[in-house]
């Protein structure tokens, strides 16, 4: 094996290790997030109070996460280009300047949002009555300051990821979730739903604590950026800061498109039965769990590599990383989509059916989840493709595609709203994401040339065949076991669901190996030979 091939193998092994660790961190983060949501469901059920909270959370708590992700996505390619041309010291100085700029802009946006809170609520929840509207305005005004903290967290996380420090930046949401959980356990009976929003703002501020150690290890110093006395002139004349400003809006629209579509669904659902907004929200959180744990973990590690290849003008390397990342994402989301459709009802029951959350709410939420799960294919393609556009700094295509996505979803929702079925809103969102994601992938191919999509198609077909066999196995096994237990017992349902999922995963992995899917084989080899330290058997010559 030559030195170049060995170097690539070592790099792939390091990438696999980082992906696995980040995935585990994100899994724990999402677990705490679900515990938070379970407690909210237990405290407030699926009535008017929870509908109001989730409608506003779509603009505040979700906005916190959107800002963090969009700022990270914007900052990484800019810092990669900057370091390649000017070195690490300049990268640290510019990071401080970006931090100042983003902090000032987010503060200005927060002030405007406080002033125009009633107009924002009219937009996101048109069907609210007077009392519900007033509560929503109060919640929004309490939550808005979290925007400032979230934007600054995004800058620092982007810097750390560009330095190859993925773990701390992936852990920030754990602090946020734990703050909300502590409130729900000990203080919710005293301060109610308004206090929960206050806890969310405090949680967003507390996220700084988890980044401090890694920032010190990288040599980051905010003081370096303060050497320029006239900050405003320096910002206006700085090409890299101008690039951040130019990239930020298209990136935000690309990152936000899923949540904007969900907010659009909630706006339409506000005209339907009480509880439909909450059911949409809970189903969306379960579906988003797959994206957050697996695809986001994958992209946290792959995106800096993609931007590095572009900064080094290595187009062949960029295409290789893109194809491998897309294949891995599809290998995850195709079976995950089938799993959510088949086991949606027991998953919702286990996670949420307690307290004020009834069995009827479980049935409706499971149907909504199945419709959202259909869109996982489109989301996985979009997550990888938009990162490629961001690395190439071709963000106008993403901005236009996001606008088309929102418009098409709104049009389809208008068509189905007359049927008064909340799950149809989720289905229209999934269809919209699939259509526009394939359009975006086609645009990337036209801009960069061949992307190895034939290989991606072959990988997807193998995954689909394995998924069909896995799904049939899972359905037979779950139905057989369900007939032998008390279906009203969450513990018993959890046990047979867990056993079914484990069996299904084993069946799928074995089939993928039999079908000789390269990416899956590489990851399995890395886990066995590098992490578990099992020596490979040498072939006899």
How would you characterize this protein structure?
By secondary structure, the protein is mainly α. 84% of the residues lie in helices and 0% in strands. It has 23 helices and no strands. The longest helix is centred in the first third of the chain and has 42 residues.
List the helices and strands and how they pair.
Elements: H1 3-44, H2 48-57, H3 61-86, H4 88-115, H5 117-124, H6 130-143, H7 146-162, H8 167-170, H9 172-186, H10 188-206, H11 208-217, H12 231-237, H13 239-269, H14 276-311, H15 315-342, H16 344-352, H17 359-373, H18 376-392, H19 395-416, H20 422-448, H21 453-482, H22 490-514, H23 518-531
State the total count of DSSP E strands. 0
Q: Could you estimate the helical fraction of the residues in percent?
A: over 70%
Mean pLDDT: 79
Distance between the termini: 15 Å
- Low-pLDDT runs: 228-237
- Beta-strand portion reads under 5%
* Rg result: 23 Å
**Main β-sheet: number of strands, strand sense, barrel status?**
none
Structural class: mainly alpha
Global morphology: globular
Give the number of helices. Answer: 23
């Amino acid at each position: 094996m030559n030195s170049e091939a060995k170097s690539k193998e070592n790099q792939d092994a390091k990438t696999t290790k980082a992906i696995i660790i980040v995935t585990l961190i994100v899994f724990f983060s999402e677990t705490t997030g679900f515990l938070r949501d379970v407690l909210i469901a237990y405290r407030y059920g699926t009535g008017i109070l929870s509908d109001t909270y989730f409608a506003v959370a779509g603009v505040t708590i979700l906005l916190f996460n959107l800002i963090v992700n969009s700022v990270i996505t914007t900052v990484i390619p800019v810092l990669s280009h900057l370091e390649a041309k000017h070195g690490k010291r300049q990268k640290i100085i510019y990071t401080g300047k970006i931090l100042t700029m983003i902090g000032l802009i987010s503060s200005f946006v927060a002030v405007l949002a406080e002033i125009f809170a009633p107009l924002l609520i009219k937009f996101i929840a048109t069907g609210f009555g007077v009392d519900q509207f007033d509560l929503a305005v109060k919640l929004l005004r309490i939550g808005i300051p979290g925007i400032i903290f979230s934007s600054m967290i995004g800058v620092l996380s982007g810097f750390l990821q560009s330095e190859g420090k993925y773990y701390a930046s992936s852990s920030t949401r754990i602090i946020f979730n734990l703050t909300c959980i502590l409130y729900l356990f000990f203080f919710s009976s005293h301060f109610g739903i308004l206090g929960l929003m206050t806890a969310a703002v405090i949680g967003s501020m507390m996220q700084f604590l988890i980044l401090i150690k890694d920032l010190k290890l990288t040599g980051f110093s905010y003081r370096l950026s303060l050497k320029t006395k006239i900050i405003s002139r320096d910002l206006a004349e700085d090409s890299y800061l101008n690039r951040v400003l130019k990239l930020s809006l298209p990136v935000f629209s690309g990152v936000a498109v899923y949540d904007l579509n969900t907010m659009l669904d909630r706006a339409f659902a506000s005209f339907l039965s009480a509880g439909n907004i909450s059911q949409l929200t809970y189903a969306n959180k379960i579906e988003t769990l797959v994206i957050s744990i697996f695809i986001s973990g994958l992209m946290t590690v792959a995106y800096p590599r993609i931007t590095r290849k572009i900064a080094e003008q290595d187009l062949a390397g960029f295409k290789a990383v893109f194809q491998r990342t897309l294949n891995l994402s599809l290998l995850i989301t195709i079976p995950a989509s089938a799993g959510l459709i088949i086991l949606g009802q027991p998953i919702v029951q286990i996670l949420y059916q307690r307290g004020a959350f009834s069995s009827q709410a479980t049935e409706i939420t499971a149907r909504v989840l199945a419709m959202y799960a259909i869109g996982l294919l489109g989301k996985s393609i979009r997550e990888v493709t938009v990162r490629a556009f961001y690395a190439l700094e071709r963000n106008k295509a993403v901005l236009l595609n996001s606008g088309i996505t929102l418009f098409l979803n709104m049009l389809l929702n208008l068509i189905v709203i007359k049927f008064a079925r909340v799950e149809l809103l989720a289905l229209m969102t999934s269809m919209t994401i699939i259509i526009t994601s394939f359009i975006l992938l086609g645009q990337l191919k036209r801009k960069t040339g061949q992307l190895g999509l034939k290989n991606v198609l072959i990988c997807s077909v193998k995954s689909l065949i394995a998924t069909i066999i896995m799904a049939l196995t899972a359905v037979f096994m779950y139905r057989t076991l369900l007939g032998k237990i008390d279906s009203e017992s969450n513990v018993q349902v959890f046990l047979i669901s867990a056993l079914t999922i484990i069996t299904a995963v084993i069946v799928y992995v074995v089939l993928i190996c039999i079908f000789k899917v390269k990416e899956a084989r590489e990851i399995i080899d890395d886990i066995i030979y590098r992490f578990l330290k099992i020596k490979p058997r040498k072939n006899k010559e």
